[in-house]
Amino acid sequence: MAFDPGRWFLTMTDFRVHVSKFPGRCVVTLVGELDFDTCPQVTQATDVMIMRGRTVSLDLAGVSFMDASGLGLLQCLRRRAGAEDGVLELCGLQAQPQRVLDLTGTRTHFRIVTAPGAAARLAAYPAAM
């Protein structure tokens, strides 16, 4: 079965990934815990995305927990976006995932958008590169 980036995916762990594509921007919305068990679903959804010249907005407002696997995934996405002349931005960070970034000293590695619902609003506008 082919992957459809416009669909919600629900798993046994109640983790959801949704990809919305707009000119110059992709919004990847995650809901649930971003951990060892759920990272492969995000990888499946993002591996098929073209990042060249785009901003990828990772909407984490629905992610209440992130472990080291989630952090590793974010770092891989950031490196990939940079290698493809794209930009990765994190939107709507909750307290625990933000704390993981702070404790590991990686928060400054990411473009972070703090306004609630920012990813959805940003999707309506072309990406600023």
Question: Please, could you describe this protein's structure?
Answer:
The structure is a single chain. By secondary structure, the chain is an alpha/beta fold. Helices cover 32% and strands 30% of the residues. The protein contains four helices and six strands, in the order βββαβαβαβα. It has a six-stranded mixed β-sheet.
Give the SSE layout.
Blueprint: E1 9-10, E2 16-22, E3 25-34, H1 39-47, E4 55-66, H2 68-83, E5 87-91, H3 95-104, E6 111-113, H4 118-123
Parallel strand pairs: 3-4, 4-5, 5-6
Antiparallel strand pairs: 1-2, 2-3
Helix pairs in contact: 1-2
Shape: globular
Q: Which H/E pattern describes the elements?
A: EEEHEHEHEH
Distance between the termini: 35 Å
**Using DSSP, what is the number of strands?**
6
Helix vs. strand class: alpha/beta
* Count of runs of 4 or more consecutive helical residues: 4
